[in-house]
Design goal:
The protein has 272 residues and is α+β, with helices and mostly antiparallel strands. The chain is built from eight helices and ten strands. The protein has helices at residues 4-18, 39-46, 127-130, 147-151, 157-161, 172-182, 195-214, 230-236, and strands at 23-28, 50-57, 60-66, 70-74, 79-84, 94-100, 105-110, 116-120, 255-259, 262-266. The strands form three sheets. The chain has a four-stranded antiparallel beta sheet, with helices on one face. Strands 2-3-4-8 form a four-stranded antiparallel beta sheet, covered by helices on one side. A hairpin with a 4-residue loop joins β6 and β7 (105-110). It starts with a helix and ends in a 6-residue tail after the last strand. The chain binds a DNA duplex (16 and 16 nucleotides) through residues 1-3, 6, 33, 59, 74-78, 93, 110-116, 128, 153-155, 159, 162, 164, 171-174, 220-221, 223-224, 240, 260-263.
DNA sequence: AGCGGAACCTGTCGGC
DNA sequence: TGCCGACAGGTTCCGC
């Protein structure tokens, strides 16, 4: 489910639902994965703590706890948080179940077990957060801020867009969508991106992500499972997964290639 | 130092 | 029906 717009949507949902709740019970169902470090320390770090706020950094979810500490989560490919008013029935993908003092529940569910949850005293001690790049929706993300990262690499533009040490939040789907909208071929070396194109890249990245957030991230989520979201999903995406169908601008069939072991979709005519 | 590739794990889909 | 390979929205680690 998760690139920046989807994580932002989840964060906003959680913030509106569970700020003020206090952890009364923490059940780790998955033996080793998901929860980083010691399971007892994880439980102890959360019990009796109140959720003060829920925020996002890159694709990480950050629960701010009172009196102290943070719960840092990452959905990776298939992680999901579910809030429930009463005890949810167990299913095999649930990994961690939290009960609040109010009697409400929060469940972390994850088919592939790539997701992570970690309790921290301070955000500074997080290894994961240490080397993250610019937030694309912040004012720091400017054409100028990309000049050096683009200049001093031999990689192609697609792979730099996915590099969380440079820009955070862009994933495989939005990388293709952004490059399509500005007419840049995913295999173009980042070094060859001209100043004018950097400017377009920044502006388009912001607008694509903002538009997706405005659509509550449904541009991606549940694309296979939930029929009623399909319309919105298909309207938003112009190239991702559209391998073989005609480009909306010129009619040339959209092409799929593999870069860094991941699919890229592009129009061979419009993108150079 | 920077890069590409493998690994982490489970599920689904299409082809034979 | 069943088996097999390809593929899935992300990150981290390892070797060159």
């Amino acid at each position: 489910m998760p690139e920046l717009p989807e994580v932002e949507t989840v964060v906003r949902g959680l913030r509106s639902q569970i700020v003020g709740e206090t952890f009364a019970q923490v059940e780790v169902l998955h033996p080793t994965l998901i929860v980083q470090g010691d399971r007892d320390a994880f439980r102890e770090g959360l019990l009796d703590c109140t959720i003060r706020d829920v925020t996002r950094r890159a694709k990480f979810l950050c629960f701010h706890l009172s009196p102290k500490g943070y719960l840092l989560g990452h959905l990776r490919m298939t992680g999901k948080f579910i809030v429930a008013e009463t005890e949810p029935s167990l299913d095999k993908h649930q990994r961690v179940r939290f009960q609040f003092q109010s009697g409400r529940w929060l469940v972390f569910s994850d088919v592939r077990c790539f997701g992570t949850l970690e309790v921290l005293n301070t955000l500074e001690e997080s290894h994961a957060l240490a080397n993250l790049g610019l937030e694309p929706l912040s004012s720091d993300f400017t054409p100028d801020s990309l000049r050096n990262p683009f200049q001093r690499t031999s990689r192609n533009i697609k792979s730099v867009l996915l590099d969380q040490r440079v820009i955070v939040g862009i994933g495989n789907i939005y990388a293709s969508e952004i490059l399509y909208r500005i007419g840049i071929h995913p295999e173009r070396p980042a070094q060859q991106i001209r100043p004018k194109e950097r400017k377009q890249l920044v502006a388009t990245t912001k607008s694509v992500l903002q538009e997706a957030i405005a659509m509550n991230g449904t541009s991606i989520s549940d694309f296979r499972r939930v029929d009623d979201k399909t319309g919105e999903f298909q309207e938003f995406l112009r190239v991702y997964g559209k391998d073989g169908s005609p480009c909306g601008t010129c009619g040339t069939p959209i092409q799929r290639i593999v870069q860094q072991q991941r699919s890229s979709f592009f129009c061979p005519t419009c993108q150079r």
